[in-house]
Amino acid sequence: MITLNPIHTFGNNQNEPIRRRQLQRMNSVVIIEDEKDSQILLKKILDQYCTGTQLVGVASNIEEAQELLSLNPDIVFLDVQLGTDCGFELLQSLRQRSFKLIVTTAFKEYALKAFEYEAIAYVMKPYSPKAIVEAVDRTKKILHDRHIYDRLSSMINSQVRVTRISVPTAK
């Protein structure tokens, strides 16, 4: 069964300075996992330990996962074994993907294949908060670096010419 979480805007706390709200960026997360206990544990770890992430949905099979991936999440937790299906089949079916991948499984033998699909991390079950936090932090850093690179590239490639620069002077 597919579970969607409403996307909440970060910084609804009016006591929080506006500048900080504008600088913080939420990373949308999708969990693709068929085991209910693993879904619950992963959601709890993300909620309690992974600030700057927003869970947008949980899928239990490939069909539900394809629907959730249409939301263009930033980070996807993908279980290798999804009932009788394999999570790698989902990745093969995608023409392109913009999300960063964290593979989760109880099996060590899929690690090489996970990294062939450019997984950022390979997390073994049962999940530990430390392993999930490290994987999410590594992924958030990559996403942040990519965001900075994209902004700089657009600035460099823009045709805006600076004709005047304002410089504050002391009186």
How does this model look, in words?
The chain is of the alpha/beta class and 171 residues long. 41% of the residues lie in helices and 21% in strands. It contains 6 helices and 8 strands, in the order βαβαβαβββαβαβα. The chain has helices spanning 18-23, 36-49, 62-69, 87-93, 111-116, 129-157, and strands at residues 3-4, 27-32, 53-59, 75-79, 81-82, 85-86, 100-105, 119-124. It has a 6-stranded mixed β-sheet with strand order 1-3-2-4-7-8, with helices on both faces. β5 and β6 (85-86) form a beta hairpin.
What is the secondary structure topology, with strand pairs?
Elements: E1 3-4, H1 18-23, E2 27-32, H2 36-49, E3 53-59, H3 62-69, E4 75-79, E5 81-82, E6 85-86, H4 87-93, E7 100-105, H5 111-116, E8 119-124, H6 129-157
Parallel strand pairs: 2-3, 2-4, 4-7, 7-8
Antiparallel strand pairs: 1-3, 5-6
Order of helices and strands: EHEHEHEEEHEHEH
Count of alpha/pi helices = 6
Head-to-tail CA distance between termini = 67 Å
Instruction: Give the strand order of the largest sheet, numbering strands 1, 2, ... along the chain.
Output: 1-3-2-4-7-8
Tell me the major beta sheet: 6 strands, mixed
Q: What is the count of β-strands?
A: 8
Name the helicity range. 40-55%
* SS content category: alpha/beta
Radius of gyration, Cα only, in angstroms? 19 Å
Low-confidence stretches: 7-23
General shape = elongated
Mean pLDDT: 85
The portion of residues forming beta strands comes to 15-25%
